[in-house]
Amino acid sequence: MRIIDLHCYPNTQPWIDCQGPYVKALAEYWDRHWTAKDEDAVVRDFAEAGVDAVLVALDLETTVATPPCSNDYVAGMWKRHPDRIVQAWGAVDPFKGEAAIAEARHAVEDLGMMGFHFHPIMGHFAVNDRQLYPLWEAIAALAVPVMIDVGTTGMGAGMPGGMGAKIRHAHPAAIDGLAADFPSLTIVAAHPGWPWVDEMTAVALHKGNVFWELSGWAPKHFPAQLKVDIRARLQDKVMFGSDYPSLPYDRIFREWDELGYKPEVMEKIFHGNAERVLGL
After folding, report:
1. What gap in Å lies between CA 124 and CA 153, rounded to an integer?
2. CB 220 within 8 A of CB 214
C-alpha cells in the first residue's frame, strides 16, 4: 500500500538551527536531544519506512531571530530526491507583510511547492487574525492548500511562560474562522488537536474545505472517540502524517495496525485522501 507522509521535517542542521532556543527547551522537557542527519541519511529513513515524504519548511525569524529553513533549501532537497520526496510545504513568516506575500509567490510559481505550513504556537499568531488576511488572500489566489498546526505542542512546554508561546493561538476556532472566510482555501489541520479534539472534529465535519492529518502522536494515544470517528464519519477527511523525526516509523505503523481498521479505510488514510484532495 502506498503511504504518503504529509508532515516530514528535513531533520538536517539548517532545520535544527532555525528553531533556535526551542530545540534546547524541548530537549530539557522530553529529555531527548535532537541530532542533525545529513540529507542522504534522512532520505534513507524515508526509503526504509516505505513512505512518499512531503517535506516542511520553517520560518520563525520574527519570533526567534534565526534564519529560516528556507523554501529554496527545502525545495532543493525535494528536487534532489524526487523518487522518495514527492513534494514540499513552503513556509512564510506572516509578520513579514509584503515580503511574506512575495515569498509565497516565489515558493509556488518559481519553486513549484504544493502549499504552505503554519505553526501558530511557535510563530506567535492565530490564523484568523485579521491583520494576516492579505497573506491568506494571496495564497488563495495562488490556488494552493495550507497545513496549519492545531492543539498544544511540546515547543516551549515546561518553560517559564512557555517561552512566550500561547497555545490558544492553535485552537480549532481559528481554523474554523479562516475556513469560513476563505471557502476556496483547502486547509489541512495538523496533529490531533489536543485538548480540543472534539472541537477539531466538529470543524473538520462542518467545513467542506477542512481536512486533518494526525501526525505527532502515537496512534495508541488517540482519544477513544477519535479512534471511532476515524473509521466512520472522518474516514474521508483524515490523512497520514508522522511529524518526522518526532516518532519512529516502526512504532507509528505498528500502532496504526493495532487500531484494526479495515483495509479500505487505511487506503484512504495512507494515500487516497491525500491524492484526491491535494493532487499527490
Report:
1. 13
2. no
Q: Between residues 11 and 163, which one has the greater pLDDT?
A: 11
CATH code for 4-278? Answer: 3.20.20.140
Alpha-carbon distance 262 to 23, whole Å? 38
pTM: 0.96
Q: How does pLDDT run across 10-23, given as a tens digit for each residue? A: 999 999 999 887 77
Cβ neighbours, 10 Å, residue 158: 12
Distance CA 189, CA 242 (A): 13
SS3 202: helix
- The domain limits of the chain are 4-278
Rounded-to-integer distance, Cα 262 and Cα 207, Å: 26
Secondary structure of 218-234 in HEC code, one letter for each residue? CHHHCCHHHHHHHHCCC
pLDDT tens per residue, range 107-117: 999 999 999 99
* Number of other residues whose CB lies within 10 A of the CB of residue 219: 20
CA angle 186, 63, 86 (to 5 degrees): 40
Euclidean distance between CA atoms 133 and 119, whole angstroms: 16
C-alpha dihedral (107, 110, 114, 119), degrees to nearest 10:
0
Structure-derived torsion over alpha carbons of residues 224, 227, 228, 234, reported in degrees to the nearest 10? 130
Q: Band the pLDDT of 156: cuts 50, 70, 90.
A: low
